[in-house]
Amino acid sequence: MPFDSTGKISFDHIYTAPDPRPYYGTLRRVDYQIPQLAKPYFTKLIEEYQAERGNPQPTVLDVGCSYGVNAALLRCETSLDELYAQYTEPGVGDLDREALLDRDRRLVRTHSIPDGARFFGLDASGPALAYARSAGFLDNTIRADFEQDDPDPAQQALLDQVDLVVSTGCVGYVTERTIDRIARGSRPWMAHFVLRMFSYEPVAERLAELGYETASVDEVFRQRRFASGEEQAHILDALAGAGVDPTGLESEGWLYAQLYVSRPVKGAAAGLASALSTVSTE
Ligand SMILES: C[S@@+](CC[C@H](N)C(=O)[O-])C[C@H]1O[C@@H](n2cnc3c(N)ncnc32)[C@H](O)[C@@H]1O
67 CA distance to ligand 1 centroid (A)? Predict the structure, then answer.
């Protein structure tokens, strides 16, 4: 498998397939689990926002949403293990796209949490967005690369509706350029799970220019296993270069992420991080 410019194995091909089978099949093999670990934190974030703003149905934008995994987990009573099982069980390789979509639509119909948030997804991959929208995981989509381009008027109109921004496995692919273009619209609250090999500092600094404050949750989260010893060696080098100590974490065979929250109100980020640190992952 090829490596990307950051030293990680490149999984790029699984994010542009017409359906999510390569995504779930490949990521299951490396025990990718950050969306499942993020679920209670994003749920708590939504609850905190609902309580403070009195808005029962906030709009959540998942940045780098791919096939809508975070929206599926947040809007449905299901787990990543169940999605892995659904997409890798015997015979699933023989199903056509419509049959796969039917199963996902049934999941949304039968397992949705009533009156919850609305979910928008932003991604550069058209096929992933099209699938997630057809399945009913996402209520609306923005296909864009805000690393390069400003939002067009239709994209801006959607960004203006966003109350909360979340992501898993995406900061690193996207930088402060994307987050800045999103934040300028409606000044949404943000929660990003970021691999420890990537610094959140440039994002936090850009957001601070817009009046945001950032805090981290005092915990680390297993993202996935290294795909090989060679990948682990590359990442340990990258961490050493960034001055991050891998002892007891990446040195033991897993990539780890940290959770950062940003709010556009002075003095509010630490309170939100501390509310989120009460989340139980048992
Ligand atoms: C590692 S995947 C994470 C997907 C998903 N959030 C998850 O946790 O499985 C990164 C995603 O970011 C998307 N992406 C990469 N560069 C992007 C960009 N410049 N703008 C928007 N999305 C981008 C990719 O298409 C891919 O879906």
Answer: 10
Q: Does a structural domain hold residue 5?
A: no
Tell me how far apart the alpha carbons of residues 33 and 20 are, in angstroms, rounded to a whole number.
16
Range(s) of the domain holding residue 129: 12-276
| The total number of structural domains that make up the chain | 1
Nearest CA to ligand 1 atom 12: 64
Position 8 scores a pLDDT of 81
> If DSSP codes are grouped into helix, strand and coil, which group holds residue 132?
helix
| Ligand 1 pocket, residues with Cβ under 6 angstroms | 15, 34-35, 64-66, 69, 122-125, 128, 145, 147, 168-170, 173-174, 178
> Do 236 and 254 meet the contact criterion of CB atoms below 8 Å apart?
no
197 — pLDDT class (breaks 50, 70, 90): very high
255: CA distance to ligand 1 center in Å? 17
Lowest mean pLDDT among 4-13, 31-40, 76-85, 210-219: 4-13
**Mean pLDDT computed over 194-210:** 96
Given this model, what pLDDT does residue 114 score?
Answer: 82
Give dist(CA 165, CA 131) in Å, integer.
Answer: 21
3 lies in some domain = no
CATH number assigned to the domain comprising residue 257: 3.40.50.150
**Residues 133 and 62 sit within 8 Å (Cβ to Cβ):** no
